[in-house]
Design brief:
The protein is α/β, with parallel strands linked by helices.
Length: 387
């Protein structure tokens, strides 16, 4: 069996795949998500008939590292007819070091610790899970799959900031994130339309949000940069921001760097603009001026980024929505596409309301699709390839 873990700042996702005799794996036999780790936890499990025992075990452990060990032991005991061959982990930032998965070694973890400054909301939690299992189950191989790796195909011109060259050479570059989700989109879209669109813009819209330009299935540009704070507005993150605003907050308003980080990571985005909520569902239901303005800004900025990525691609052959918002918010999708009608993009309203895979009319020149994110499958496949 292959187990996968995706540990965030406030959530934990895990899954279990059974290996076949030929070294591949079957469909996922168990998925779980633990949300609001440090508050009123909720647990979602598939299949639900395994929910009681595992849910009780999850709710009985407070420490996240101990929780990962508890879940792993449950998975081992649950399927005594299969041994656990390896564990795959999502790691948000691999920097310039990794353009693909690797087996977790002590040197790797030390190297990745240094990148935590660029992904403070995710990286420390990712690595803590790996270390917890290395200590409690040292004989089980662990592999690392990186959100940045998919974007290592970007040309240098797409990686560079207009900063002094020595800073670029020291690693201050645009790396991009959500790479595991984009890898799944690149793998899935040819099965839907029998070919890979040459010029594809993919939108991963969730609590975090980003956009990626794919040329023949490879990333050539993306909205996020050195950190996961850049690009599109998100649930609580600001996205693109004039650096002068940061200087003003520190120099003229006397805010500390930590206070500015708290503002930009946790108090901005949809939450900051609306003053009400970070949840698109709540904002769409609210219908007040600030809520509407937050949604309007969100959709406008996403559409504008699609235009930018179309320039990088030299045209546009397809658009894909993914992520929690991208998959489940027809109103958001419709508003974004409305901004892009001049590009020959349109959607079928019935298909959009039904969250179908193919969202556009058959005659459209730029088809639109909705693909359910499955980062766990990519982690499992990469893990399998290494062991």
């Amino acid at each position: 069996m292959i187990a996968t873990f995706n540990v965030g700042s406030s959530s934990l996702k895990f899954s279990l795949f059974v290996l076949t005799e030929t070294g591949g794996f079957q469909d996922c036999i168990l998925r779980g998500a633990v949300r609001d780790l440090h508050g009123d936890r909720t647990v979602d499990l598939e299949p639900s008939d395994e929910s009681d025992a595992l849910r009780e075990a999850i709710l009985g452990v407070v420490d996240t590292s101990a929780l990962i060990q508890t879940i792993t032991q449950f998975l081992i005991d649950w399927r005594e007819d299969h041994s656990l061959a390896a564990i795959g982990h999502r790691i948000v930032h691999g920097g310039a070091y990794y353009d693909g998965p690797t087996i977790a070694g002590d040197e790797d973890l030390t190297r990745l610790d240094a990148l935590s400054v660029f992904a403070p909301a995710h990286q420390p939690h990712n690595l803590a899970g790996v270390r917890a299992l290395k200590q409690s189950m040292p004989n089980i191989p662990q592999t690392l799959s990186f959100d940045t790796a998919f974007h290592r195909t970007m040309p240098r011109i797409a990686e560079l900031y207009a900063l002094p060259r020595n800073l670029s050479e020291e690693g201050l570059l645009r790396f991009g994130f959500h790479g595991l989700s984009y890898a799944h989109i690149a793998e899935t879209i040819p099965t839907i339309r029998d070919e890979m669109p040459s010029r594809l813009v993919a939108l991963h819209l969730g609590s975090g949000a980003s956009a990626c330009a794919m040329q023949d299935g490879e990333s050539i540009a993306t909205s996020m940069g050195l950190t996961a704070l850049d690009g599109l507005p998100m649930a609580t993150r600001c996205g693109d921001l004039d650096p002068g605003v940061v200087l003003h907050l520190i120099q003229d308003r006397g805010m500390t760097p930590d206070a500015v980080a708290e503002l930009l990571y946790k108090k901005s985005g949809l939450l900051g603009v609306s003053g009400l909520s970070s949840d698109t569902r709540a904002l769409l239901q609210d219908r007040t001026g600030p809520a509407n303005e937050a949604i309007d800004l969100y959709c406008y900025r996403i559409a504008r980024e699609v235009g930018s990525l179309a320039v990088a691609l030299g045209g546009l052959d397809a658009i894909v929505f993914s992520g929690g918002v991208g998959e489940n918010a027809p109103t958001i999708r419709a508003r974004i596409i409305a901004h892009l009608s001049w590009l020959g993009v349109s959607i079928n309203q019935d298909a959009n309301r039904s969250n179908r895979v193919a969202l556009s009319p058959s005659y459209t020149s730029v088809p639109v699709y909705c693909i359910t994110a499955d980062e766990e499958r990519i982690i499992a496949r990469e893990c399998t390839s290494l062991i």
